[in-house]
Amino acid sequence: MDNVVTLKEESGKYFGYSVVMFNNQDGNWVLVGAPKDTFTHSHEIKTPGNVYKCKVNLITQEKCTKLMIRTIEDRNDTHREEDHQLLGASMAVFNESIVMCAPLWKIMKGNRSEPVGRCYSVDKSLGHDYSTSFNLSYNESGNSYAQAGFAVSSKALQDKQRQTVLMGAPGLHHWKGGFISLNLENIQRFQRYSHVSIHSDIKKAIVNNTLMGYSITTGKLAQKHDCSKTVVLGAPYFKTAEGITGSVLVVCLTTNKSMTVKKQVSGKMHGSGFGTALVFEDINGDGLDDLIVGAPFNRIDSGEVCVYYGTDTDDVLVKSQQELTMSIPGRFGSAIQCVGDLNKDGYKDMNRTLNGYSSQKDITVLCAKKTALKRGTGQKLGSIGHAFAGGSPAKAICYQRCTKLICQMKDIAVGAPYQRDLRGSVYIYHGGPTSLTFTQEIRSEEVGRNLLSFGWFISTPVDIDQNGYTGYIYFYLRIT
């Protein structure tokens, strides 16, 4: 493959466990989590983990260097423990800040250590190694093993123009789980969510070891559902009648620090890991976010990905008849990422969308200045989101999400890091009106030699070289 940059470090560090890309005034950067690494100047701390900064271009490659993510309190307080804290296990970029977490950062209570978890906010300028840090109070009930920061949503919650970051905390309340919403402008202002309201049957099912918050993201529901703050939580150890099948909860946040469940979807097989990976994005261009869920242990580690399309009906999400599966073991669905419109085919996809939703197959809808035009006549068909042809309504096509002159669909990348003797592959699917279309398998050997677990992590796409095309990273992980 062309335009490939390979970043490497010594094995055993879990280098590549997480990654973010961004640009600043000094160039293009990739930060790489290595949660089994050591600190440069504090070798007495046992494998605390670290984060590497790597300046990236396609001509010359500079060596990655370590950040030093420690606070004065960490250095001097004997009641805090950084051994095996998994620093760099999760990261995300928000405007001018980068959040990086150590979910096994611990508070010492006598001879007992309690992994409440800690996250750090670092300025994108990288002018200094850390700015502020956050951790839950160990004195509050249910926090002792919270593991806050086990997962971080790559999208900020829309909350009155504030930067609100969502961090999964699957160990809250004896591993029932939950999450933290954190205001980056004032890092000490946060809310802990771990209680489900109204749905008593679901509340009873959230038992110890459910691990709600193992994965986390946010998005939006149709206006009808009256939910201004929507959070999606993966709970891969959720118990159903079929066993520990895993589940995903779409919840609406309430003012009393609890959650109202708007939709729950569950796996079908015991031990499938349903909810391990999540994407909540509009992949079919209809203006409603769709849910894509990974179940990498399904069918004896072959893996499966399920798709649920957003709707403005009471169902909230409707499961697609299409299930993405593999016939060989490889943990397909371990990582999922929406990677934008890779093939720049939004115009063609828009035609397919209309044909998929409407019986009027001679109509093409273009998004241009909030009008829709009937092909060949120039007749206005109404505002964005509604079109009429021959007196028959075509279902909502375009809504308000247009890029330039067309509404683009989004494509999906799915990692299968253990396929083919642990070498791994990444699969590309193009978005469509009612299904995803497989287009390409990228094998590890096409990218570089001796790569293992290729597809373990797929980064959020970023136009890192500002050429109008988003780039993204399929990271491999070498554990041995």
TrEMBL record:
It is found in: Membrane. It is a single-pass type I membrane protein. One of its GO terms (molecular function) is integrin binding. One of its GO terms (cellular component) is external side of plasma membrane. Its main location: membrane. Keywords: Cell adhesion, Glycoprotein, Integrin, Receptor, Repeat, Signal. FG-GAP repeats lie at residues 1-63, 260-317. GO terms for biological process: cell adhesion mediated by integrin; cell-cell adhesion; cell-matrix adhesion; integrin-mediated signaling pathway. Pfam families: FG-GAP. The keyword Secreted does not apply. Belongs to the integrin alpha chain family. This is ITGA9. The lineage of its organism: Eukaryota, Metazoa, Spiralia, Lophotrochozoa, Mollusca.
